[in-house]
Structures are given as C-alpha cells and as structure tokens.
Amino acid sequence: MSKVAIIQQAPYVLDKTRSIKKAAEIINSVAAQGAKLIIFPEAFIPGYPAWIWRLKPGGDWGTSEELHSRLLKNAVNLSSDDLKPMLNAAKKSNVTVVCGINERDNLNSQSTIFNAVITINGQGQVINNHRKLMPTNPERMVWGFGDGHGLNVIDTPVGKIGSLICWENYMPLARYSLYAQGIEIYIAPTYDSGEAWVGTMQHIAREGKCWVLSCGVALERKDLPKDFPNLDELYPADEQWINPGDSLIVSPSGEIISGPLSKEKGNIIIDIDVELSTSSKRALDVAGHYARPDVFKLQVDKSRQTSIDFKNNNQ
C-alpha cells in the first residue's frame, strides 16, 4: 500500500514566491501524515489564469496585457532557484511531488509561458517536466504549445507515475503513450470539473487499468489579489466560487475511491494498492496482450522542440 495526497488548495494567485512557500508548507504537513506521493493542481504556481474564460476575445486588451505581464513575471524559471523551498521540502521528507506550474521558457526568446507539470523526487530534484501539448481555446493566448519531451512514466518508490494535463486526457494517443510505458498511477492535474470530467477519469482508469488521481483547481473570488484589474466586472462581488475543484481518486476498475471533492478546500489522503494496476490487466491490457502491433503502431517524438539550431562553422 502507498499513501497518496491530492492537494485541493488555492495558491497565492499571481504571486510566485508566496505560492511556492505555501506549497512547501503543504508538502511538510501531508508528509508528516505519511503521504509519499503529493499532487498539486494544474498551473498551481502562481495560479491557473481563469480570467481568460471571461475576457472578450480580441478585446479587454489593457486588462489582458496587465494580467499576462504579471503572470510572466511570476512564472517559474526552472534554471533558477525559484523552486528551492519545494525541492528542499521534498528532500527533507523523502517524498515524490507532482505540481502544475506556469513555466517561463529559459531558452529561445525567454518570454513564452508553458503550462507544465513537474515531478520532484525524494532527493529534491526535478526529474520530469511535461509541457501541455495543446492549450485549449483561449489558453492559446497565454501558453505556448508543448512537446513530447516530458511524456514519460517515472519509476518512483510509490509506483510508476505519469501525467497529462486537463484536456490532454481527451487525446487517445497521448494516453496510449503512457499506457505503453507501464503506468500504474495516472495523474491528471486539471481545471476541468463536473460529471463529464469525472466520467472521463473513470473511463481512463478502466481503459488503462491504472489508478487515476485527478487534482482539480479549487478557486474562490477571495483567492484573487485585491489589486486584480477589473475585479468587480470579471468576478461580481456576489460570486464565491470560480472553479469547484472536483478532485477524486479512481481505482483500476473504474470505481471512485474518494471524491469528488467539490466547492471546498482540502486534501484527499488515502492508501492505494498499486499492485492492482498490474493484476487488473489480466483481462485487458491495451498496450500489451490486447494490442495489435501488426495493425496499429504509435510513434512518439520525445525531442524538445526549438525554433533555432546554432552551428559553429568556425575553422
């Protein structure tokens, strides 16, 4: 049995330093309760840009510029010491942490933001960085397109884990790339919620015969900074919940074991039997004995994409 923790908490929106400090404190707290795998929501640092779903496409230019500028300044640069408090907390407690971040590209123009999910090991090292392949609808005004570089299943002390972000989980080939690497604990940080999303998580668990841990964004109006531009226009004072969370844990049989945790802040901390992910494949193993490689084959490019390749032609 392995104890896992889903963190359904709000960050300090648009404040990278305080959000990272809060994440480190949460890691220390739930690790003290025995959790060995700790999962944070999509874009937790410094918060999911929920405003994109309310701004007028092509309009609200001033507000969009101000918010994007603040998000860029508070996005995580993985080549810096931004995450040091979280890395130290993971190392101190020897736990594995999966966390959604807004990542500021440290190569190329250094001004693009990616929706990324990182994996931190018990030695306090970032061992995987997956960038969301396909930002959805207005998300494309905020985030760049990711690539296959982070489509990896990582062998950790709690089991083999991998992640897809929000609507990437609707991409059958992306899911299959994880199934084919022997995933046991499938992690889905997300802004989505509701019955359709919950049903999708159950389907993935049945399809991949793996544990599915969905960590949703729980965001209230009071979580936004007081100097948020056009706050009353975008989020009227009588509106409490911006997004409900709906985090849950599903077994390899598709049974909901815990959750969905809706319209409340909290953590789901439970023990799961990771071995079920292996034994459940006796009847159905979509990337193993149930596959037909003579008919279907998937090719995945895991190279990190870049717009430029410098070559030194000096003799």
TrEMBL record:
EC number, UniProt record: 3.5.5.1
Q: Does the keyword Hydrolase apply?
A: yes
UniProt keywords, alphabetically: Hydrolase
Which Gene Ontology MF annotations are present?
A: nitrilase activity
Give the source's domain of life in one word: Bacteria
Q: What class of enzyme is it?
A: hydrolase
Name of protein: Nitrilase
Which family is it part of? Answer: Belongs to the carbon-nitrogen hydrolase superfamily. Nitrilase family.
Q: Name one Pfam family in it.
A: CN_hydrolase
Note the InterPro entries from the entry: C-N_Hydrolase (IPR003010), C-N_Hydrolase_sf (IPR036526), Nitrilase/CN_hydratase_CS (IPR000132), Nitrilases_CHs (IPR044149)
Active site residues according to the UniProt entry:
42 (proton acceptor)
Annotated CN hydrolase domain ranges read 2-274
Q: What is the lineage of its organism?
A: Bacteria, Pseudomonadati, Pseudomonadota, Gammaproteobacteria, Alteromonadales
